[in-house]
Amino acid sequence: MAKLVFGMNMSLDGYVDHDHEAFAPDPVMFKYFIEQTRRTAGSIYGRGLYEVMRYWDGNDWEQGDSAMGGDLQAFAEAWRTMPKWVVSRSLESVGPNATLIGDDVDAVRKLKADLVGEIEVGGPKLAASLTRLGLIDEYQLFLHPVVLGHGRPFFVGPQPRLRLVASDRIGEDVIRLTYVPAKSEC
Fold first, then answer.
1. CA torsion sign, 40 to 58 to 67 to 21?
2. What global pTM score does this model have?
3. What are 42's strand-pairing partners?
4. What's the CA gap between 32 and 44, in Å, rounded?
5. Residue 53 to residue 44: CA distance in whole angstroms
């Protein structure tokens, strides 16, 4: 059985913003994301984050990658080969190595039951829906030392009770906090 992991970059005040320059990874963090993408069993995306990540499908990363030492190309290759499932009612098609599953919760349950390893969950709205259904196994908050003051919160909707299981530093400024759902005490 696979483990569903929701992880995103987050500001100190709890917001995620895919386009904010404060979330640009340093080389150590970028290498971390390359390895994470290589080892994952796949990713389930909400429409919004999938459309942001499709950026990696269409570019020729062999050109102009000297500043990152080939890391842009390495990430693009890892992302392109990773299986992806997209939860969306509005998209009619998705790109290479991606499957559109609409809003079929049973398809998500089947992926979790049939695959082995970690499946990344991408997008706070999708994570909120899967949290309400009790399907998220782990939350990874990549905490950046920045205050945004606005945007989409990491946790959208009901706040799950969580238990901290790990914390570690990635690169110069980012702390990864890893939480699992807390068992209810009756």
1. negative
2. 0.91
3. 119
4. 19
5. 12
pLDDT in single tens digits along all 186 residues of the chain: 999 999 999 999 999 976 678 788 888 999 999 999 999 999 999 999 999 899 888 766 555 555 556 788 889 999 999 999 999 999 999 999 999 998 889 999 999 999 999 999 999 999 999 999 999 999 999 999 999 998 889 999 878 899 999 999 998 899 999 999 998 654
**CA nearest 75: which of 90, 89, 92, 56?**
56
Secondary structure (DSSP) of the chain = -EEEEEEEEE-TTSEE-TT-GGGPPPHHHHHHHHHHHHH-SEEEEEHHHHHHHGGGTS--TTSS-GGGTTHHHHHHHHHHHS-EEEE-SS-S---TTEEE-TT-HHHHHHHHHH--EEEEEE-HHHHHHHHHTT---EEEEEE-S---SSSEESS-SSPPPEEEEEEEEETTTEEEEEEEEPPPP-
- Spatial separation of the C-alpha atoms in residues 60 and 111, rounded to whole Å: 31
Tokens of 110: 């089947």
